[in-house]
Specification:
alpha+beta; 8 strands; 194 residues; Umud Fragment, subunit A
Length: 194
């Protein structure tokens, strides 16, 4: 005779509850502090760096800023590199400073913007923390200026043709990607692109 349990089995995924709690807190407008895991944002953000997150709507995040979004069971900290309209829906393109993979993220998945880095200061008062703003991040200016220069002609073409603007394809796109990669490597030494 085979004995079967009548109790339902509960499958849990490690970190899922914590991700849900953080997501709900940021969506409710509560700022938070997250610690970076991984090397996808090196050297701007290294593993273990504590960052302060400011919850703001996706539409208010400027290209070039580092933001936080939800991807499956994870909360990802990457840089917004482009905004793209597809069939009337705005997609936000995110990329780690140290990688080539681009995530196309809808607005409802974006939780907020990295406002700055928190650093402990060796002062007389134990546990004193200093906040360093991310406003003068050189990568921000690189992506911001690139977006400003390229998006104007693309929007103009879209206006004139009546179709949504798209980046060129084929050899022109390949050339643009290579030039972008060379400029990125030159501007941001210390990154070990994958």
């Amino acid at each position: 005779m085979k004995i079967q349990s009548t109790e339902p089995r509960i499958r849990t995924r490690p970190g899922r509850d914590l991700t849900d709690i953080l997501t709900q807190a940021l969506r409710s407008g509560t700022p938070g502090i997250l610690h970076v895991r991984g090397d996808s944002m090196v050297p701007t953000l290294r593993e273990g760096t504590a960052v302060r997150i400011r919850p703001i709507p996706a539409g208010k995040i400027r290209v070039g800023r580092i933001a936080v979004f939800q991807k499956e069971d994870l909360i990802i900290i990457h840089r917004l590199i482009w905004k793209q309209n597809r069939d009337g829906v705005t997609l936000y393109l995110f990329k780690g400073d140290n990688g080539a993979l681009i995530d196309h993220v809808p607005a409802e998945r974006i939780l907020g913007e990295v406002e700055g880095i928190l650093r402990e200061e060796p002062t007389r008062t134990a546990g004193s923390v200093r906040f360093k703003s991310m406003r003068w991040d050189p990568a921000y200016w690189f992506y911001r200026i690139s977006y400003s220069i390229l998006s104007l002609p693309l929007r103009s073409v879209g206006f004139l043709t009546g179709r949504p603007p798209r980046l060129p394809s084929g050899p022109v796109r390949t050339l643009l990607k290579r030039v972008h990669r060379i400029v990125e490597i030159g501007l941001f030494p210390g990154r070990f692109f994958r």
